[in-house]
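Let's do one together. I've listed all components of the complex below, 581 residues spread over two lines.
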Amino acid sequence: MAKQGLKRQQNRFAAILLLPGLLTVLIFTSIPALTTLSYAFFHWKGFSRGGFAGLENFHRLFAFPFKDQLFMAFRHNILVFVGIYVIQTSLGILLAYALFKAPRGQRFFRTVAFFPVIFSLVIVGYMWQSILNPFYGPVNWFFHHIHWEFAAQTWLGNTSTALPTLVFINLWRWVGFPTIIFLAGFNAISTDYVEAARIDGASEGKIFRKILLPLLAPSMTIVTILTFIGAFEWFDLPYVLGGSSGGPAGSTDTLALMFYRLSFGSVDSGANEIGIGSALGVIIFAVVGIGATYGSKFLRAREVEA
Amino acid sequence: MTNLFSSKTFFRAVLIFNSFSILLPVFFLINSSLRSSNDFAANPMKLATHPYWQNFSQVWADGAFATYLKNSVVITGGSLIVILVFSLGAGFALGRYDFKGHALVTGFILSGMLVPAKLAILPLFIQLKWMHLLDSQLGLILVYASGALPAGIFIMSGFFRSLPVDLDNAARVDGASEIQVLRKVLVPLVKPGIAIVAIYSAIPIWNDFFLPLVFIQSPEKKTIMQGLTIFFGEYSSQWGIIFAGLMIAALPLIVLYLVLSEQFIKGLTAGAVKG
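Okay, and this is what the predicted structure of the assembly comes out as:
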């Protein structure tokens, strides 16, 4: 009886404790997330909803004038994902392995490597905009100084260099994050395997390739999925440095920027297209959701093999 | 390659090179914030041997900047209080109690972690307008809290679950009520979890400019990161002032990071690194 009383008291207490948090999430995350799907199937005039539109918003998204923007933005997202993934992952593994193998001063080097992660992308963006400034920036100053005039580009102002430059800035900001995940991965590997291989006379390079790298697979899964999601929702850095239309001349446009323009109106046209924007939102959500789900399934299966 | 991989000197060199690549740009920022705009324009690459502190006082004299900073403190602090109180409570209930619908609640929390907030921005905008929470700091606080709560509850429930059951029972035998069990016995033991949730949620909120960009229009309500984008346009060629503005916006986190780097690393990678 006393036990049942306690149980009832606990149930009531649990409800009181859970409700505020759950309601907040329900009202400000779940309901908007669910309604965002429905928005894509209605006509919109400004911020007021009209009749049912079926798939018309999707058709319009895939027709003039949005189609070209859409495919260009999508191409940029893919390029950004591949670029960030290849460079950031290899550099992250190298740095993590260096921290793992040369533990003296690890705390200092680790703290420094992670440092830029705490910065806002607004600060990172403007800081690099100044550093890469064609007239006052130290980068071009250096190239002029050593008479490498050809290397002194207008990094962020040129359609062919702007996107790679953004990828580079992203790398500077973020490489410490995979580094920490990979370092934790290396540390989690049992030293027995490494000792055994060493006794068998395996070289350090071979141990790295045949034992450590395969056993790093769980960390690799996490980094891959996070990079994928981040790349296909890439917004902040291109917005800060290229504006909402992905300047210069759309060369840094992304799906998320296009979604923002359609939702809230672009600087040049002003009008917004909520229906088409929501259709694009559904597509981004599908790409990210399906990619992340199947990607992690595929990568997890490989972990078991390793 | 084989030689390189067994050479500690090579790895030390990699780490030193990386540290330089990371610290040099930050040093450029700090150094330039201490030089007058004219001095900088004449030669951008000189050391600030005579620190020009007027940049900072000039930024401060532009009253808007202090307002932005205050707003960011209010919004980050307000969100943090909501997040910590709610996730402590819900985390405790999920981690310590077995009740009907436990699995359902857990599933709901996990689904909340998967929603990309940016894509729900339109319905959220219209909903906030309808609730009269648009262009409001309270609205922003609630949206931030709801974004961080699923992960916060999840992390806290893990910490509560890891504590031995006997703790609560012993306290109950001594006549403690459920609230007392939570407040007096368990909360002190999950302090490391509180620190992780606090850092995990507060840093992205302080750094965010997307939600204020969409939800806040009144100049007197804008946040520091949103304000910087305005500031950058206003003082476009007054370099010293721009660098000082960036420094002021970055400084709070830099100082905190210098003191609490371990907690920062743990907190910001929480969810990605297990254990």
